What does this fold into?
Amino acid sequence: MSEDDFKRGWKRMVEINELGAEAFRDRMEDFAPDLYRDTVEFVYGNVLSRPVLDLKTRELITVAALTALGDTRSQLRFHIYGALNVGCTREEVLEVIMQMGVYAGWPAALNAINVAREIFEARDEEGLD
Amino acid sequence: MSEDDFKRGWKRMVEINELGAEAFRDRMEDFAPDLYRDTVEFVYGNVLSRPVLDLKTRELITVAALTALGDTRSQLRFHIYGALNVGCTREEVLEVIMQMGVYAGWPAALNAINVAREIFEARDEEGLD
Amino acid sequence: MSEDDFKRGWKRMVEINELGAEAFRDRMEDFAPDLYRDTVEFVYGNVLSRPVLDLKTRELITVAALTALGDTRSQLRFHIYGALNVGCTREEVLEVIMQMGVYAGWPAALNAINVAREIFEARDEEGLD
Amino acid sequence: MSEDDFKRGWKRMVEINELGAEAFRDRMEDFAPDLYRDTVEFVYGNVLSRPVLDLKTRELITVAALTALGDTRSQLRFHIYGALNVGCTREEVLEVIMQMGVYAGWPAALNAINVAREIFEARDEEGLD
Amino acid sequence: MSEDDFKRGWKRMVEINELGAEAFRDRMEDFAPDLYRDTVEFVYGNVLSRPVLDLKTRELITVAALTALGDTRSQLRFHIYGALNVGCTREEVLEVIMQMGVYAGWPAALNAINVAREIFEARDEEGLD
Amino acid sequence: MSEDDFKRGWKRMVEINELGAEAFRDRMEDFAPDLYRDTVEFVYGNVLSRPVLDLKTRELITVAALTALGDTRSQLRFHIYGALNVGCTREEVLEVIMQMGVYAGWPAALNAINVAREIFEARDEEGLD
It folds into this structure.
């Protein structure tokens, strides 16, 4: 990987969730620098910067996967906030979570719904959609 | 639930994957009639027939969730085949699976890739996209 | 689904855990009304109101499943409290969790034991079995 | 653990599923003797021989947990067959699995239903309930 | 199992994490005495006291498994602290977690990294490696 | 990432399991070239080529994680075979799996034991340790 991958990755992270990206950098850059670099370069600079799927769809499948996997509240906060930043509507996020009730079970969906409410309320306070 | 939910659900199952829907009916209708009816009425007639998300997006988040959950080869066969039927491209299906490598781990993604190849080959033989 | 399913579902939720049902309604009714309605109508009014298994057994298999699935503290609180409400003993709840150590691993069982202790202490304060 | 635990465990395994117990012994006794002994002594001689829950309930919560966990076809075969041996009805086994659709998701329930059908057919051929 | 197993198990628990072992005993001994005894006798006195793998390796595979399983913060605290007590370095613990990003997905690794930082900071305050 | 990462990754894959690496290349190179390249470059050329942990330890934690995750038979075949290639003993592999019974539950351990037996028999036929 290269400096270009890192730059592209950081740009994409910021595009999805600038405050979350900065908080992630502050927590990880010194403590686990290699995992931090791999996250920016590989996850965001490579995988999440690929073509074929638009960023809205990438965020919705991420919300779906995080809901299904469980134990991902922190990641759901980042990506529900991020999904709304890149143009998904609140209704779309709730629909994805609701469909997960059927595929991953009600507890998984209800856990994610609670994160969604928390994020929507935070955005209300910030005056964001 | 009502007869209308059942009809709408069956129509949606057929729209996604007619052969798969018929095979499901043949396996389940007599053996587990209540689970069969709930699947058609509730899963397909209610959840998967809701508005807000188009059917392509619903199939892509389903492929994402099934890849992340694991132990879902049979369901992945139905929904990868179904995703292509409702207008997703093979490239989009592979992109979803590839992104799951990052969220659910490489083994989950590699298992799903193997199902995708199997389905793509079956569709090649059937002359389908 | 119908108004009857909803009524039967709400009655069943209240039978299992009245305070939990009301808290659930207060959190969900406005925020995610469709998921709220599906939960009451389909999960409680349809699945958990079916015959064949008595309510005690339904609550014990639910505690088993929630323990095995993980990341279900909120749902375990509802259903451990509910299991005791519908006639399971504390010893039965602990036995189910202990058996899960073997099937789902020690961490899953220890997490659920901590929820059980929390619920038992709350019931002690309320003067309940 | 002691010889007594082992004897009690083997007796319990045989009570649940004699053919399955013998097949397990044949596969494991030489290849992984310590895991074999721990399974008989600890899992069956200790945990599954405890009081408080009757054996029918223990088998139903095991079917619930195995359905929820996924990737457990081999264990589901043993315990669905075993549940029926110790007095559970086929309807009860199907009810447990159906309830898991709600807690662990449809794919988990459908996978377990397929194992149940396979076991029921095998028992039909053997002339068993 | 015997008194010897219990003594060996307790000694091993203390060797791995004395404060954690005492906290576990205080929480469990009265509330769930059988699960407490099984944990000490079977998990620590039997499985974790076996030869073939040294204790450092046992702790590293435990950290790997807990990271992969998810919803194991409490157990990760015990075993990351324990891994360092029995001679693993902080770098080794971080490497194990980082490798889990690939096998279990980024969310699992990031959750475990957060526990590792918390434990490392606690040890800094205690003047431990 | 660069050609160097790819070369280092391929060398590491071959070091772990040459036949498995070639079979993986044959299945993936044309069908999913980007996932193939990421696997070689990132997983093997970056993560699994890092220092701090020796290759034996990396393979043992991988066997632990794959056992715990479930639905990973194909990956367990690759890595149990690989663990033995890089110097782990059969006893060490079995010990890792056995410890997983405690952390991930008996079904996970028994599934992995069955893969281990299959791989050990294949190596017996090949005259390998």
